[in-house]
Amino acid sequence: MFYQTESKAQGWRAMGKFEDGREALLLLGRSSTQVRQGYIESFNDLLDDEEREQVTSISLQRWHGAPDAGNWEHQTTLKVPVMVARMERVAA
After folding, report:
1. Cβ atoms 26, 58 nearer than 8 A
2. Which of 10, 55, 59, 80 matches a 20 to 30 Å C-alpha distance to 21?
């Protein structure tokens, strides 16, 4: 028997990639629009200053396949938010 816990699956996510190869889930959402609108806030809320500086790219990914048998597929690269502190250091 199958029990669906949501009206619609969370099929999109933003993943941050660090300089050392690690990855971090920044946001999980129902649509690409929802993830695009919220990933910058999540980036700032979830990561500390040091971690933000080490993020080299952010991947927008879509779930492909059945809920229990599929994989995340890269769709596009999102812009890495620029920190004010980083901009001030470069200017100095």
Report:
1. yes
2. 10
φ/ψ (deg, to 5) at 42: -65, -40
How far apart are alpha carbons 24 and 69 in whole angstroms?
22
Rounded to two decimals, what is the model's pTM?
Answer: 0.79
> Can you spell out the DSSP letters for 48-70?
-HHHHHHEEEEEEEEEEEETTEE
> What region does 86 belong to: left with phi over 0, alpha with psi -120 to 50, or beta?
alpha
pLDDT tens by residue, 24-40: 999 999 999 999 999 99
Q: Which two tokens stand for residue 16?
A: 């941050």
Closest CA to 38 of 67, 72, 78, 77: 78
Per the listing, tokens 């949501």 go with 6
